[in-house]
Amino acid sequence: MPGHKGGRMNPELPEYYGRLCMSLDVNSMKPLDNLGHPVGVIRDAQALAAEAFGADHAFFMVNGTTSAVQTMIWTTCGRGEKIIMPRNVHRSAINALVINGAIPVYVNPGRNARLGIPLGMGVEDVQRAIEQHPDAKAILVNNPTYYGVCSDLETIVSIAHAAGMKVLADEAHGTHFYFSDRLPVSGMAAGCDMAAVSLHKTGGSLTQSSILLSRNTVNPDYVRQMITLTQSTSANYLLLSSLDLARRHLHFHGREVYEKTIAFAEYAREEINRLGGYYAFGPEICNGDTCFAFDLTKLSVHTRDIGQAGIEVYDLLRDDYGIQIEFGDVGNILAIISAGDRRMDVERLISALAEIKRLHRKDPVGLFDHEYIDPDVAMTPEAAFVAQKETVPLRASLGRVAGEFVMSYPPGIPILAPGERVTPDILEHIEFTKAKGCFMTGPLDMALNNLQVVVS
Amino acid sequence: MELWYTDKHTEDVRFSVKVKRQLASHKSEIQQIDILDTCGFGRVLVLDGELMITEKDEFIYHEMLTHVPMAVHPNVETVLVVGGGDGGTVRELAKYPSIREIDLVEADKEVVTLSSIHLPFTACKLRDPRVRLHFEDGLRFVRGKKDAYDLIIVDCPDPYGPAEGLFTREFYGNCCNALKEDGILINQHESPFYAAHQTSVKNAHAHIAIEFPVSTVYQCHIPSYPSGHWLFGFASLKYDPVRDLDAARWNALGIAARYYNTDLHRGAFALPNYVKELLNR
Ligand SMILES: Cc1ncc(COP(=O)(O)O)c(C=O)c1O
Question: Could you tell me if the CB of A412 is within 6 A of ligand 1?
Answer without folding.
Answer: yes
